[in-house]
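Reader question, answered in our methods column.
A reader sent in the components of a multi-part assembly and asked whether the whole thing could be modeled at once rather than chain by chain. We filled in our standard form and ran it. Here is what they sent:
COMPLEX SIZE: two components
ENTRIES:
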Amino acid sequence: MSSRARLLGAFLVVMAAAPAVLADFHVTLLNYVGLATLVVLGLVLLTGVAGIVSFGQQAFVGISAYVTALATTAWGISPWVTLVACLAVTALVALLLGAVTLRLSGHYLSITTIAWGIAIYYLFGTLPMLGQYSGLDNVPPVTLFGFAFDTGRRSYYLIWIITAAALVAAQNLLDSRPGRAIRALRFRSVMAESVGVDTASLKLVVFLYAALLAGLSGWLYAHFLRFVSPQAFGVNAGIDYLFMAVIGGASQVWGALIGASVLTLLKEWLKDILPALFHQTGNFEIVVFGVLMLLLLHRTRDGIAPAIARLLPAGPARARPPEAEPLSRRAQPARGTPLLEVRGVCRRFGGLVAVDRLSFAIDSGEILGLIGPNGAGKTTMFNLITGVLSADDGQIRFLGERIERLPQRRIARLGLARTFQHVNLVTGMSVLENVALGAHLRAGRGTLAAMLRSERGDERRLLAEAARQLDRVGLGEHLFEAAGSLPLGQQRIVEIARALAADPVLLLLDEPAAGLRYGEKQALAALLRKLRDEGMSILLVEHDMEFVMGLVDRLVVMDFGQKLAEGLPAQIQTDPAVLEAYLGGIE
Amino acid sequence: MSPDIALWLVQDGITNGAIYALLALALLLVFAVTRVIFVPQGEFVSYAALSYGLLQTGQVPGTVYVLVGGGLLAAGFEIAAALRERARPPLARILVVYVAIPLAIAALAWWAAPRKLDMWAQVLLAVALVAPLGPIVYRIAFQPLANASVLVLFIVAMAVHYALTGLGLVLFGGEGLRSSPLSDAQFGLGVMNVSAQSLWVTGATVLGMLALWLFFERTLYGKALRATAINRVGARLVGVPTELSGMLSFLLAAFIGALSGVLIAPITTIYYDTGLMIGLKGFVGAILGGMASYPLAAVGALGVGLLESFSSFWASAYKESIVFTVVIPVLLWRSIASRHPVEEEEE
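And here is the structure of the entire assembly that came back:
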């Protein structure tokens, strides 16, 4: 048993035994920790992993608490029925807010959540139906088969079983196909789109997930406390949740538990100790609390969980994923079929014509090199084909379908996979997981299946495929290393493996040799030749003439956005126009 | 609603909106330069307003303790940072900036308070007590974390907000204060009565904005701040020190906060914790303006002031809810009107 598993076991035993030995007051405190953990867990995924900061989670807790309090007291509906209503209302509000703010750039969502949290707080306090500032009381307890969770001690098990389940589900989610995509959202959205992830929808899903956890917490809160009032859902509550996430360590699931415990207990302790220390009551605890938080953040910016994780011994070396039934492959076009056809494409940036009526084509089974001096428009052309940019004029056809206006992920779905000039890997994820991200579109099970682990068959096939592709490119020894720790040459090759994992019809490589050492270039060229011999078609945008000449079947030379020449490498090398563009005119 | 009530509401809205506009500018400036969502901006407002109120009654405001204590703490941070890098701390500079200046201002307040100097001296003193808190707060809380993420900086800002609000309660007590206006005069202007205080507020706001504009357009420091706001790395490469731009933006923010505090003190009763809401309304203004353009932020803040004043007439109980919900339809419109490419953070 690994030390982590032992730690988890010990934790479960302690939590299960806690009510037997603790006083009522401490059990209640632990209940608050559990309720906060649920909310913070959502923030860990939303903020820590996906990079979307929300200050308004307390509003979702509040909405849900009020829905159930109102429905159970005023209309006598069973709490189990209102649970569904709570989640539905929370989801609806989250979808509305998310749809409004997630598409906007920058920190709109974050700031909007502050404003909206304040608005809802005042609304709770003013609506007569909700009891204004005195709130709603006499909320009934949850009952299950005649057993009422009507004391703190009884609620303890209800709260902590749900919290533990949520922790496990979140851990499962992060370690899955949608989880990998979520982990790419923060720093690698463009890459995620290029492997077919709909990043906008995924952000909405994560926002929804965090809101639902907060809603669940609100439902539990109302029935545990048997009373709701606006004070619990003020702006400060929302900030406290974020505090907990940041202090616990917002990038790790267990950070939620640690942060919620530390903050809840610390506040309680300060409330006890400070009046005794200062011999007068006042708001000292909030001052000391502020200062302590400041000091903590000055010391450990990533929070407590990562600091603890560093102290634990590393787990045993992980085994290679077992062989699994291969993922289904797409039908590859016969050798010589026209794949990509660029016809009269133009792209302007203001007055600059970056690509000017360019036309060329690639057939299946060939390596075409697109070369040209700096500023010739190669990267723009690349971005037009892959859908990062859209063309102003002209047509791009891929397997007969027009793609010049399609977004990246639709083009990826058609079988076009790319690498990036500036290596675009999720640095904290293992090499294997990065490559598995490339196969994102080849399996379809979603977030819920991942949380319940009902997609393990698909997951095995995805990981086996990723391992196979890494073998194919010669990186089979490095499956579990963090992608960011490999040297640049190998990171480039991981990018190629990720593209291959998509089972593409055409591979687009953007300056794969840039920044590589001589030996690394040799290895890369050998790999690309091997891929071509296996029947892969490749479009290569490159700068390095020596690298290109020995490798490609045909060349297209660009200069000032236009096509300067096209032909076999030997013809291009003696073409006077090309020589002039590269070497300058001969006077 | 009769026209004179409407006009009165407009006047009220513009007066409050002008103050929100000042705060919106400060928030925007701090965010652009340091990436700090500076929630404690409102504390400068309440500190200044309460200090001004106490000076009027002849008492020494507790702000002097925060100023001197904070200055000493910041000096300690400076010396420790220098020692950690095994450099000799620039003691003369540290002592002047963080010890001598705060002590001098505190001593002045001590001397002046019981003498009940004239109103203008009190205004100046209140602003002088609060404005240096900006750089002190920056030095203690933010400078050590200058490269942290927006989230961590925000959490730090919240911690500072907690600490300052708590101190505010200790120093000023839970009682609210309302100071006497700069002038009680009223002018008849057509059908409406204009109070001199709202003219003062609006005038001071316009002057403040003009001064800011001149600062940013005409001075080297102003240009350095603009450069930092546009491209932090680039500004550093051409020799604008991060600490200097941070200090400057916080000094400006605290000065603007203090000015707003003195202006708002006669209009509404200020408690130790009122600052948060006033600051956040400035924030809503900045959001309405798109978080990027100073003039639009000012217009947005005026809008907030007007909305607040009209909703307190029609639906007084829902005033705050309305003011803070208005961001959602505005953002919806912006979201529909603009197309944004896929975005990612810098790692």
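What stands out: The longest strand of chain B covers residues 186-189. The CA atoms of residues 67 and 186 of chain B lie 37 Å apart.
Send us your own complexes using the same form.
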